[in-house]
Write a structure and sequence with these properties.
globular; Serine Threonine Protein Phosphatase 5, Tetratricopeptide repeat; alpha/beta; binds zinc ion
Length: 486
């Protein structure tokens, strides 16, 4: 007869992660390549992971075990360093920019930045790590997860302690190694696949054990061109040429999509000599330019949006890696010229560089709403909601509609105005008049220069027959802008 402990052991077996392995276990035909890795650990990480230096060394050895057989790759620690950086660990993209600015890594093959574990449970690879595609840098989070630990202890009450601890440890090690290899592959230009069976799926799963065969080809190809492909222009172009040929010749549905497009776009940039060989450091903003930013903000507040956008343009060119500048560029373009195709292109390209920036997602959503593409707008708002939930540190599993996210944004984000406007717009389009008015009144109060909000609000008052409110609004508009609100 089965005892409770037998049932538990059976169940525990289903939670054991799959063994990471190469598709080919045969000895490698590729030459042995030692990849030198420099590791930085920030203060949070160091406080959470005791003995972090031997820890990352062991982690790299486990990664080597997975890739050595097939690719001949051996990860070797160049050095481990303390990383005293500003800011918390919420935004991985910011951490990645900081790491690139700190150490271009020209003398090594990979620079890893270690930041604190997430206090919430997530399976999204990009909450667990990020990497610069075709670059040298990646950020990895600590993988300790007290919640998962607690859950395992409470589920398996009959299993001996040792078995429970082993299960937790195996799951953690599998995740650590998978995320490291996933992000490393991104630095070689490898992109996501849609089948969750493979390690390059955007979400981590304990059942992932290998790279897809197509991904393996891509990896092997990039390895052949490195490290030279990151050091000199001609080698980079040779890499790009061969990669472009592989990507255009391989038809595989799991590969298609925006990710592949952006890898192909990189090959084009490289071939025309426009892809940087090393990181482009986010240069600090000069004092004179800081003053100019303030002037532009003032112009925008006065409603002189087009002048503001024009004056801002040189800064957009001068600081391509500065998040604040690029986010503002998208915002101003949306305000000044929402119908111009270039506006959408600008915001989309900003988003690809700063994918965690909620204001860009919202601005793009607004462009789509204005052009009537409601499905695209909806998809972007859902993304914005996910980002907000991650950034606001909410628990997974509480997935309310996009509105919930906007409402939370109102409480926590300076982009409140944009969220109010979008909520007002959505409400107006679903004939929720009261809600629309409430939000639009907020926009007008918070950001009087928002012309669209005045117009939409006037329309709402008119539809609802609120003539005294309409009159009052028109009066305020006249005082503000010295012209009529129509
Ligand atoms: Zn990824």
């Amino acid at each position: 007869m089965k005892r409770p402990v037998d049932y538990e052991r059976e169940y525990a077996r289903t939670l054991v992660p799959k063994r990471l392995e190469n598709a080919s276990q045969a000895p490698s035909s590729s030459p042995r390549r030692t990849l030198r890795v420099r590791v930085y650990a920030d203060a949070d990480y160091r406080s959470q992971v005791l003995r972090w230096e031997p820890g990352i060394e062991a982690q790299l050895r486990r990664a080597t075990d997975v890739v050595e057989g097939q690719f001949g790759v051996v990860f070797e620690v160049d050095s481990t360093r303390k990383w005293d950086r500003a800011g918390g660990s919420q935004d991985l993209e910011t951490a990645l920019n900081q790491l690139e600015a700190l150490d271009a890594g020209e003398d090594v093959d990979l620079v890893i930045g270690l930041v604190s574990a997430l206090p919430i449970f997530t399976t999204s690879h990009h909450q667990l790590g990020v990497a610069r595609p075709f670059g040298r840098h990646c950020i990895l989070r600590g993988m300790d997860n007290p919640e998962e630990h607690k859950a395992l202890l409470s589920v398996f009450t009959h299993l001996p302690d040792q078995e429970r601890e082993t299960l937790y440890r195996e799951r953690k090690l599998h995740k650590e190694t998978s995320v490291l290899l996933h992000e490393w592959a991104h630095t070689l230009g490898v992109f996501h696949v849609q089948d969750s069976h493979w390690m390059m799926h955007p979400s981590y799963e304990p059942a992932q054990a290998a790279f897809a065969p197509q991904t393996q080809q891509h990896l092997a190809l990039s390895l052949r061109h490195l490290p030279q492909g990151r050091r000199d222009r001609e080698a980079q172009q040779a890499w790009a040429r061969e990669l472009k040929a592989l990507l255009t010749a391989t038809v595989w549905p799991d590969w298609e999509g925006a990710d592949k497009e952006s890898a192909l776009a990189w090959t084009e940039r490289a071939l025309s000599g426009q892809a940087p060989l090393g990181p482009e450091p986010a240069s600090p903003i000069l004092p004179a330019d800081r003053r100019r930013i303030d002037e532009v903000i003032a112009l925008d507040k006065q409603g002189r949006v087009e002048v503001a956008a024009q004056q801002f343009e040189p800064l957009v060119q001068r600081y391509p890696r500065d998040e604040q500048v690029q986010v503002m560029a998208c915002y101003l373009a949306v305000r000044a010229a929402p119908k111009l195709p270039a506006t959408r292109e600008r915001c989309e390209s900003t988003l690809s560089r700063f994918p965690e920036q909620v204001p860009i997602l919202m601005n793009l959503a607004m462009l789509h709403l204005q052009s009537g593409s409601h499905a695209e707008a909806q998809a972007l708002l859902v993304k914005a909601r996910r980002q907000l939930e991650a950034q606001l540190n909410l628990r997974g599993g509480q997935l309310g509609p996009a509105r919930t996210a906007c409402r939370k944004a109102l409480a926590a984000h300076p982009e409140a105005v944009q969220a109010h406007f979008l909520l007002g717009w959505m409400a107006a389009n679903t004939r929720a008049g009261q809600e629309a008015r409430t939000h639009l009144e907020q926009v007008v109060a918070l950001e009087p220069a928002h012309q669209d909000a005045w117009k939409l609000l006037a329309e709402q008052y008119r539809t609802a027959g609120k003539s005294s409110e309409l009159k009052d609004l028109q009066q305020r508009y006249r005082t503000q802008f010295a012209r009529e609100l129509r």
